[in-house]
Amino acid sequence: MVHKIIQAVAGAGKTYHITNDLDSMKRYLFLTYTNGNVENIRKGLIDSKQTLEKCSVSTFSKFLIDWCLKPFISKMVPSGISRYKGEFTTALPPKVFINKKYNPKYFKQDNYRHYLDKYNRMYLSRMSTLVKINLKENKEFKDLVLRQLKTFVDIIIVDEYQDLTGPEFDILVNLMKLTKKNIHFVLVGDFLQSGVSQSTQKSTSKLSSLHNIEDLRGLLKTIFGKTIELDTVTLKASWRVTPDVSRFIRKKFDIDFNTNLESPNAKKRNTLKIIQDPAQLNNDLLTNTKILYYPSSTLKAINIENYQIVNWSYSKGDTYKQTIVVLTDNLKDICNDDWSASILGDKIRNQLYVALTRSSGNVYIVPKKIWNIYHNIS
Predict the structure, then answer these.
(1) Which single residue of 148, 262, 287, 301 has CA 20 to 30 Å from 30?
(2) What integer pLDDT is reported at residue 151 of this predicted model?
(3) pLDDT tens digits, residue range 132-148?
(4) Name one GO molecular function term (predicted).
(5) For residues 308 and 334, what is the distance between their CA atoms, to the nearest angstrom?
(6) What is the CA radius of gyration of the chain?
């Protein structure tokens, strides 16, 4: 069975697609990153009048707990891990070194104390590593997980898959390989939004360094070989972003990004505003527009009580009527014809992409120098 990955550009209607294009004869398990996305998917399923009894929705972390960890803890390794009684702790586990000296309270991964504290509560930050190791090395555990999934699920849809990193991403890959004869996986997301808001793992997303579809295609071939299909057509156009902004993104990021011609926003013109003079800013504009600033904490120096401030990365998933994107110093040349996002680091590039794609109307681009002059910041 060939799994599928759908590349969904920002504002392409991803949630609508995955909650409406369903087979009424199949049983679905939806996995996503945040509780907010869980509610969005549930609402989409209700609005689409799907048979809810055949649809389950969960965060990826809760899926690991409910489908992998708790049912089969007695079959997991290392020996002693079955002392876990169902509680978690968000406390930080002991580090290997303290002040460059080995920490005697640290236990390696082959000891159950690596995962459980003295009260036999599991360190939440190490749960994914435990599941990953068992999916890779523990045949009995692997067979039990597969049997349970086969019993209750036909299709697994993973929303915002690009947000999974480290062991969580490895678990996803292992599950897709494990179920390739029995369960169809559909992954939906945008590689250009990877590393913006991601899993609790500290690891960098494997997708963060990708620049285009061919990079994504190459990575998928390396991981899955011929068992994966990449769909770049179904969700290739944005219902949110206007044509002017789409054109700007297409040129600066060198990607295929367009406005959906059926969108009401496709008729909007002159929506990209480059602010080149402080006189173009005014209080009415600033107090009635979402201001996307990176990082937003640096705005403490001015009176922003009436401003609607959002960090670039925190705006991911949101839609605003219009936005002001305040540039960082290293983006001052963004409007030059020869400027390209390829010169940026992976994280800042993807955060900029997110910031530019939040508005369904006007996008005001404000260089930091202009912003500072207007607010009398030296």
Answers:
(1) 262
(2) 98
(3) 999 999 999 999 999 99
(4) helicase activity
(5) 24
(6) 23
Look at 46-50, 111-115, 350-354 and tell me which has the smallest mean pLDDT. Answer: 46-50
pLDDT attached to residue 200: 52
Q: Is 88 helix (H, G, I), strand (E, B) or coil?
A: strand
Contact 215, 333 (CB under 8 A): no
pLDDT in tens, 245-303: 999 999 999 999 999 999 999 999 999 999 999 999 999 999 999 999 987 766 655 66
Peptide bond into 278 cis (omega under 30): no
The Cα–Cα gap between 334 and 3 comes to 38
The structure tokens listed for 320 are 């605003």
What is the Cα–Cα distance from 229 to 231, expressed in whole angstroms?
Answer: 6
273 three-state secondary structure? strand
The 10 Å CB-count burial string (b at 16+, else e) for 150-174 is eeebbbbbbbbbbbbbbbbbbbbbb
Report residue 195 CA to chain centroid gap: 7
Taking Cα atoms as reference points, which of 252, 272, 275, 274 lies closest to residue 339? Answer: 252
In 3-state terms, what secondary structure has residue 185? Answer: strand
The answer to whether residues 164 and 5 touch, using CB atoms and an 8 Å cutoff, is: no
In order, the DSSP letters of 18-86 are: HHHS--TTS-EEEEESSHHHHHHHHHHHHHTT--GGGEEEEEHHHHIIIIIIGGGGGG-SSTTGGG--S
Count other C-beta atoms under 10 Å from residue 128's C-beta.
25
Q: Tell me the CB-side half-sphere exposure of residue 297, using CA atoms within 13 A.
A: 1
**Single pTM value for the model:** 0.92
Q: Cβ(362)–Cβ(273) under 8 Å? A: yes
The 3-state DSSP class for residue 352 equals helix
Q: For 302-344, write each residue's pLDDT tens digit.
A: 667 789 999 999 999 999 999 999 999 999 999 999 999 999 9
Beta bridge partners of 101: 98
